[in-house]
Amino acid sequence: SQQGEEDPQALSIQEGENATMNCSYKTSINNLQWYRQNSGRGLVHLILIRSNEREKHSGRLRVTLDTSKKSSSLLITASRAADTASYFCATDYNQGGKLIFGQGTELSVKP
Amino acid sequence: EPEVTQTPSHQVTQMGQEVILRCVPISNHLYFYWYRQILGQKVEFLVSFYNNEISEKSEIFDDQFSVERPDGSNFTLKIRSTKLEDSAMYFCASGTEINYGYTFGSGTRLTVV
Predict the structure, then answer these.
(1) Is the pLDDT of residue A1 over 60?
(2) Contact A30 B99 (CB under 8 A)
(3) Contacts of B35 in chain A (CB under 8 A)
């Protein structure tokens, strides 16, 4: 299976704390993307990291990619209650843009 | 900010009926996708569409499914003879290039009864 796996499946933190979510995958990739999904809503693209990149930042988001371990992490710093959502990693396995999604991490940020 | 628009937001249909899910991708995008998410499960790839033809499809995308761009702006997913297990959230997505992120629509929740 090419599908990625995220851990933890659920994460509960207090507002102001950092949240770290991890994603692992199985074969070589073209890029890895992180998406957010609020309950019952659409997917919002957060950040894309290419296979030749190791770290990327966007606002309070920091993504790392370790191709030797076939893993990525998403760090949300200084979390807010509005960050409560499910977070998915999705990999493009050099297959023309098709994304393979992980199971997701359900993040709950308590005010 | 440009959006991908999907209609309807919720569709209820009888088993065996045909449904058409509609999407208006962002106007300068070239790559179009349909994904689905069964409640509580992963988002699954269905089909990709580029240059007016299917570029890739998953094993889920069998003869029951079809896609088209009837007028150069809309992008539709047709499901013939719906089954109970087709109940899911269906997402349309579009993008400018392969190595960029995609913009997803808000989804159509399909309920087959």
Answers:
(1) no
(2) yes
(3) 99, 101
Angstrom distance (rounded) from CA B15 to CA B11: 12
Mean pLDDT by 10 residues, chain B (113 residues): 92 98 93 93 93 91 93 92 97 86 93 98
Q: Distance between CA atoms of B38 and B65, rounded to whole angstroms? A: 16
Find residue B63's DSSP bridge partners: none
Q: Strands B103-104, B53-57: parallel, antiparallel or unpaired by DSSP? A: unpaired
Partner residues linked to B77 by β-bridges = B21, B67
- Tell me the C-alpha distance between A89 and A74, whole Å: 9
Is B42 in a helix, a strand, or coil?
Answer: coil
SS3 assignment, position B84: helix
Give the bridge partners for B12, in sequence order.
B111
Q: Chain B residues within 8 A (CB-CB) of chain A? A: 31, 33, 35, 42-45, 48, 50, 55-56, 89, 91, 93, 95, 98-107, 109
From B43, B103, B107, residue closest to A88, measured CB to CB: B43
